[in-house]
Design goal:
Length: about 280
């Protein structure tokens, strides 16, 4: 797998090493906030993650230890402008992996304060790791804005109570990483930002060892369970499970196990072992 870096976007660095893409929000002077240029860079980055067969997993984090992401760059917001009133959600919001539809696993490393729009990444990434001392806040209502999209994602992960607590109290309430971990909003808590990033890379290496297609379909089935009721979610999961039967990895995995060797996975999602 290739090791490459992309120096073209200083506000969002992109490094690929051993099949893992590391995306870093790089505006520490502005709390790693989401400027219009950052949103554009993120959309392009997710497109690259999805298209590059050498990338198996992505990690997203922020520069420094003070802020992960403080949400939208308020200094760049022009009230009453943007022309988004009649734009569907799916077209207006494409800066997180789930919004973009990334099929590969994405790990979020919360290295500091996560506020407002930064909560999108916590809600939309597949695995969330935070350092002890990080905190979570939703300041929308404190500046006259509605907290809706992020709060819905938080409610699904941590419960309606947590979403209401942060969404209604605004900037005067910060949820600790320890409390967020207890509620299930984050999956793993590490002592430092360096430890959190190291754990993310360790998990990414585990994922890279598995069948790319099986991983992608497993991710799709689990996320679908948050959108579909039973039995529809189970029926959908059953169809995804059966679709893997025709993929070469369905035979390669057991064969490699019996031959006591590392499997040689086929990265093509459309490959068919039946010829």
């Amino acid at each position: 797998m290739s090791n490459t870096s992309d120096p073209t976007s200083s506000i969002l660095t992109f490094l690929v090493k051993d099949g893992v893409a590391l995306l870093t929000l790089n505006r520490p002077e502005a709390g790693n906030s989401l400027s219009p240029d950052m949103l554009t860079a993120l959309e392009a980055a997710w497109a690259r993650v999805e298209a590059d067969n050498d990338i198996r997993v992505a990690i997203i984090t922020g520069t420094g230890e003070r802020h992960f992401c403080t949400g939208a760059d308020v200094s760049g917001v022009e009230v009453g402008k943007g022309g988004l009133n009649n734009v569907p959600y799916a077209f207006a919001n494409r800066f997180t992996p789930r919004q973009w539809g990334v099929s590969k696993p994405v790990i979020c490393v919360v290295n500091g304060l996560c506020n407002g729009g930064g909560l999108h990444f916590v809600a939309d990434c597949d695995i969330v790791i935070a350092r002890a001392g990080a905190s979570f806040m939703d300041s929308h209502v404190s500046i006259g804005l509605v907290s809706a999209l992020e709060s819905i994602g938080v409610a699904r992960k941590a419960g309606v109570g947590a979403a209401l607590l942060m969404g209604l109290c605004g900037r005067d309430y910060r949820m600790t990483a320890e409390r967020a971990h207890g509620l299930g909003m984050i999956d793993i808590l590490e002592p430092t930002a360096a430890d959190a990033l190291a754990r993310a890379h360790a998990l990414a290496a585990m994922i890279c060892a598995n069948s790319p297609q099986a991983v992608a379909l497993t991710k799709r089935a689990i996320w679908a369970s948050t959108e579909l009721p039973d039995p529809a979610a189970l029926v959908y999961g059953w169809e995804l499970l059966k679709s893997q039967w025709s993929h070469p990895d369905f035979e390669e995995g057991p064969r490699a196990f019996l031959e006591k060797r590392a499997p040689r996975w086929n990265p093509d999602p459309n490959a068919d072992r039946r010829g």
